[in-house]
UniProtKB/TrEMBL annotation:
InterPro entries: DUF1844 (IPR014995). This is DUF1844 domain-containing protein. It comes from the Bacteria.
Length: 85
């Protein structure tokens, strides 16, 4: 069973990146108010989240259950596709 804190961390990093790329909702509207969605800063924010997720995948390889590993892999793949990496 996936650890709720791990799921929350992955979802939070992915949501931050998606908000920076323009996928706003009520939970991420504050990023726009804080200036995190302006031009190159938005892309840097998204890239930073992707980098953190990639590092997390590297550091936890072999220590996650199937669901956690799949969640992390899917989040990384979705952000790479959006960023063109």
């Amino acid at each position: 069973m996936p650890h709720p804190d791990f799921v929350g961390l992955v979802n939070s990093l992915q949501a931050t990146a998606e908000a920076a790329l323009g996928d706003l909702n009520a939970a991420t509207a504050s990023a726009a108010r804080d200036g995190l969605l302006e031009g190159s800063r938005a892309r840097q924010t998204a890239q930073r989240s992707l980098n953190l997720l990639t590092m997390l995948a590297d550091k936890t390889r072999g220590n996650l259950d199937f669901t956690e590993a799949q969640l992390l892999t899917d989040a990384i793949a979705a952000l790479r596709a959006r960023l063109g990496n």
